[in-house]
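Let us practice reading a record.
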Amino acid sequence: MKNKKTTETNETKHLRTVKDLNEQGHHESSPGNNIFKKDTDGTLTRPCVVALCECMKSVGILYIGQHGRGTVVRVGCNYIITAWHIVEGILFPACRDSTLPDITCLQKDNITVDFGDDRYQATEKFKLLPNIVFKDADLDIVILVLDTAEKKNNLPQPFQWIWLRLVGILSTSMLVIGQHPSETCIVIDSECKKICLDDEKVVKAKKWFKTNKEKLKLCRKRKGLDTNSVDSSLFEINDERKVIIDTFLGKGASGGAIVGKSSDQTLGLVAILTHGIPPPYYDETDLKIPQELCMEVGTTMKAIKHAMEVQCVDHQIINSIFPSSHT
């Protein structure tokens, strides 16, 4: 009986010690003694998962024929927001020598927006109107208008935005909804870490570039590509209008939704995914940048709202996309 009592006492003491360590946020014990594999709570409640499924319905793909060119997010009355570079090639066809965009190209028969799961079904596909509501090449953002005359009932709900203080946060995770890099479908990449200036990934990327900069420039020169982007590859880390995140999604996900989760697990649109850094990562050159050193850039909704106000975009449009109840 004495031995049994001693064993129980030791077990109770051990459990109490583990409990105390967890409550104190202590995670410095050896790997073999750790009970939990993560030191942050990335769990989602059932209402949050349901809300996330609804959010996915508001993210679609911009098609040229059967090719998914990029991701779009449904916002406001009947608008979509996406990355400017996705639409730029449509508005400035190579065969046309002009500095002005040809907005009639948006109405071509092979240009469609699809919020459905099957690119061969036409029930969820929408055409675009020849209208650019807002464009900022520096932010790499454009807002277009959906033609909803015939399919208004099939239009998904707009993605609501929420304001989260993204700048200055040492560590936070977001979700990314966008087109899969190798499959034409919308997917979610959950728990995407925000990359900060002192992040280990940034330090390693800078070190790699310092070592391989001249080789990379030579590779780009052989391909007839601009070499200046090699020097400016990591400059955007300091741009407060942008947010840098660690996500699996790459080519095709431009224009996707970067989703924030508030303390009460409310989901909302906080930024639009625009492009990857370092930019040379997507180049077809002999010298490949290691995938683990690549990051993705998003333009914050706050920066987009401010730019729209500076450009004097109609207040009704701004209020439609940025309802005051969600600020």
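A brief commentary: Residues 200-222 form the longest helix (23 residues).
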